[in-house]
Specification:
- With 277 residues, this protein is mostly helical.
- It has a domain at 126-178.
- The protein has helices at residues 5-14, 22-25, 27-40, 49-62, 66-78, 83-97, 99-115, 133-145, 147-156, 162-177, 184-198, 202-214, 219-233, 235-248.
- It is globular and about 60 Å long.
- The two termini are 37 Å apart.
């Protein structure tokens, strides 16, 4: 087996002139991985190339895949993801993955941008001040999550936990979601990608399925994200994500397709007559 024509074309568009060392050391794996990730999976979904690469970068940060992140960041920049957008993906990961996990990816992003001649720091994208971050954050939180739900979260919080709700409003939403550089629907797709890639965050991921719907991302967009992440995060986390999508935004028309019939097993070859002599 070798990468098919479509896989080679898509691969060459993202990585012009690059030949993976794994193609020499592990050709079997790379051949069928490339056919799957750069052809078969790309045939499904509604994401444009730039958005697909952005959610993949977000998932690679959440999954701590630093080496693959460097490679895919180069592809994303080649495909037209801007330096500001690349940086905003990393910044958006901080409230979800934590700075401890994002730190190395921030440095890797700076290294890649610098190697491409991009001067740092980039133009700032913050729109809040220490005085306005909580008010503006609460407003955007209610827009994304829903005002009734946010009010209920505040009302239900014990007195000694109320500070966490305020952190969510001021820091998670006020410091991050109010930034320019990426629009709200894109930020919500990135957040969903990070949560499903991390695993163990199913309650939060389910909440962000609903949040995506609130900002205009439909079921098809979320299924597209899960599908495009599959080669990078594996089947268990992808299937968990699809279950959450089905719970919040069920399909209007369940598929009636049956699984493909298995191919007949080949007849066993006869044993050599002298094998036990």
């Amino acid at each position: 087996m070798a990468p098919n024509e479509h896989a080679r074309k898509h691969h060459d568009e993202l990585f012009p002139g690059h030949v993976s060392t794994l193609a020499a050391t592990d050709p079997d794996l790379i051949d069928y991985f490339d056919n799957f990730a750069f052809d078969e999976v790309l045939r499904y979904g509604s994401l444009d190339t730039r958005t697909r690469l952005m959610v993949q970068l977000a998932a690679l940060i959440a999954g701590q895949a630093l080496s693959e992140y460097r490679v895919m960041l180069g592809a994303a920049l080649t495909a037209g993801v801007t330096p500001v957008e690349a940086k905003e993906i990393v910044y958006q990961a901080v409230p979800y993955a934590g700075m401890g996990k994002v730190f190395d990816f921030l440095h890797a992003t700076n290294d890649v941008l610098t190697s491409r001649g991009v001067p740092l720091p980039l133009e700032g994208q913050s729109t809040t001040t220490p005085e306005t971050r909580e008010e503006k954050g609460l407003a955007v939180q209610k827009r994304i999550v829903g005002a009734e739900r946010v009010d209920a979260m505040y009302a239900a919080a014990p007195a000694d936990e109320l500070h966490i709700q305020r952190y969510l409003s001021a820091n998670c939403f006020g410091d991050h979601y109010t930034r320019t550089g990426l629009d709200l629907p894109t930020r919500e797709l990135l957040t969903f990608a990070m949560l499903i890639a991390m695993g163990g965050c199913e309650p939060q991921a389910k909440g962000h399925v609903a949040a995506n719907l609130n900002v205009g991302n439909d079921r098809q967009a979320l299924l597209s994200v899960a599908t495009q992440l599959l080669p990078f995060i594996g089947y268990p986390r992808t299937l968990n994500a699809i279950r959450l999508i089905d719970e919040v935004a069920p399909s209007p028309a369940p598929s009636r397709a049956s699984s493909p019939a298995p191919s007949p097993a080949p007849s066993p070859a006869p044993s050599p007559a002298s094998s036990s002599a």
